């Protein structure tokens, strides 16, 4: 009788172990799919970041700033004869 109980417990342990292995493999696959998706998203964000940095550097060039200052704001270079220096005494 105790041999049958031992065999039943052993079969139960094997079944529980098999279910654990199946669950672990399934979880591993799901995590790998998520990792792949996140890596793809990271690559897309890196491309966007590079594009934004390029755009920012284009908008911030000295020539562009000077053109906007002249055309939109009506600014100009100051003649040296127009410069007044104030001295604090």
Provide a descriptive summary of the structure in words.
The chain is an all-alpha fold. It has one domain. The chain has 2 helices and no strands. The protein has helices at 2-59, 62-71. The longest helix is centred in the middle third of the chain and has 58 residues, at 2-59. The model has no long low-confidence stretch (mean pLDDT 92).
DSSP helix fraction? over 70%
Overall pLDDT confidence? 92
Q: How many DSSP helices?
A: 2
Look at the helices and sheets and give the structural class.
mainly alpha
Instruction: Give me the count of strands.
Output: 0
Shape: rod-shaped
Q: N- to C-terminal separation?
A: 112 Å
Biggest sheet architecture: none
User: Radius of gyration in whole Å, from Cα?
Assistant: 36 Å
Strand and helix order: HH
Low-confidence regions:
none
The tally of structural domains comes to 1
Strand content: under 5%
Outline the fold blueprint.
Blueprint: H1 2-59, H2 62-71
Summarize the structure in short.
By secondary structure, this protein is mainly alpha-helical.
Features of this protein?
89 residues; 2 helices; mainly alpha; rod-shaped
């Amino acid at each position: 009788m105790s041999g049958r109980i031992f065999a039943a417990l052993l079969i139960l342990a094997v079944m529980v172990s098999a279910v654990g292995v199946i669950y672990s493999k399934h979880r591993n696959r799901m995590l790998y799919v998520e990792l792949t998706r996140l890596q793809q998203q990271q690559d897309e964000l890196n491309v966007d970041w590079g594009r934004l940095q390029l755009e920012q550097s284009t908008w911030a060039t000295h020539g562009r700033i000077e053109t906007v200052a002249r055309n939109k704001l009506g600014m100009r270079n100051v003649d040296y004869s127009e410069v007044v220096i104030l001295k604090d005494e």
